[in-house]
Amino acid sequence: METPHVLAIPYPAQGHVIPLLELAQCLVHHGFKVTFVNTEFNHKRVMNALSDNNNLTNLVNLVSIPDGLEPWEDRNDLIKLTESTSEVMPGKLEELIEKINGSDKNKITCVIADGSLGWALEVAVKMGIRRAAFWPGAAAQWALQLSIPELIADGIIESYAGMPVNNRMIQLSPSMPSMNTEHFPWICFHEENTNNFIFDFLTRNNKAAKFADRLVCNSSYELESAAFALFPNILPIGSLLASNRHGKSSGHFWPEDSTCLDWLDQQPGQSVIYVAFGSFTVFDQIQFQELAMGLELTNRPFLWVVRPDITKAASDAYLTEFKERVATRGRIVGWAPQDKVLGHPSVACFLSHCGWNSTIEGISNGIPFLCWPYFADQFFNQSYICDVWKVGLGFNKDEGGIIRHEEIKDKVEQLLADEALKSRALHLKEVTAKTVEEGGTSSNNLNNFIKWMKE
């Protein structure tokens, strides 16, 4: 019998690559051959960031296709990136599949495409290959996007550009958490052209999602029961984390600085504030310095991830001076092995942008949150953390939209003094751990998904 061969292709952003690559490694463990397709640009970053003792390349066939952009072009420009990938990558993906099927006795038997890559599902339809759409974020956000036609019909958003008719709180179903129409992910870019483009892109994706034989999501019934009740055809198979299989996390775009783990070993238990804002957040200089001052004011040990591109203006001189002032209790790194950090006994709380990967990593380790969302789904994820699960606190901005250092200090103190909140975080850790254990809801769904792909 031939080995089932899955081709997995993520949306070209780190937050999408990591969970799909985790699913790919799970499939290898269950006897699949997996070809994982990144863009050439991201493939190089992933390969450069792999540690010497990571055996990913022995497990998964990592390949790449061009995204249509030149190496120096800005891939944070979502219009340029999405236009280019949608135009260039479908043909390149088709060529790749034909090449594999012509040279490999184990032909591609299933395409698993990111839920934001409708065109990849269309390629699979054209080539007669079964297909699944994988959503790396919260099911509620997918439910929101799939509900766009109903939102238009109900007069909540306009058919053009998806702008809210009135800014208000809505619920997709009576049992789901409220959503702020101001924070819908397609209007968060503060630029009309980008908002319009993203809305059109999501609408096209909704149509393509109908080509998927299966819809799977990196979440669980226990975290989002109401969202899965609204869309029962979406199967939760999460949380997909390297720690669940006692392995190494892969797919990062920056090399991890693991020396911070040695530093954590030297700190008292549950004392460290871990600060990380993912791969996309950018601060202006004022907000960056307010955050630094806030951390300094707490007078507590902290580990802060500061990417080279995290500020709009150069901050090298300020950062050097700041490091000198806080050298005895602060550690700053360019990128951290976050799964290991959040599982470390010295970490007390997680000051986070509330990206879904970070959210489920924090939850899985029983860590309380300080929520600082930047864009898109992160605002709704904050609602889950603060209002539904009640395992975190948000920050208040001043009249100029800045979170000031005094507010940061106050919220840190408030969070770390709240024993009930910390207790809920530990309880949620236990609940979510059971979902991925043998017989758990997500484990059963994953096994059924695997069985379908092997048929």
TrEMBL record:
Native organism: Rhododendron griersonianum
SUPFAM superfamilies membership: UDP-Glycosyltransferase/glycogen phosphorylase
InterPro entries attached to this UniProt entry: UDP_glucos_trans
Pfam families in UniProt: UDPGT
Gene3D superfamilies in the record: Glycogen Phosphorylase B (3.40.50.2000)
Keyword list, A-Z: Flavonoid biosynthesis, Transferase
Protein name from the UniProt record: Uncharacterized protein
GO terms, biological process: flavonoid biosynthetic process
Family from the record: Belongs to the UDP-glycosyltransferase family.
GO MF, any single term: quercetin 3-O-glucosyltransferase activity
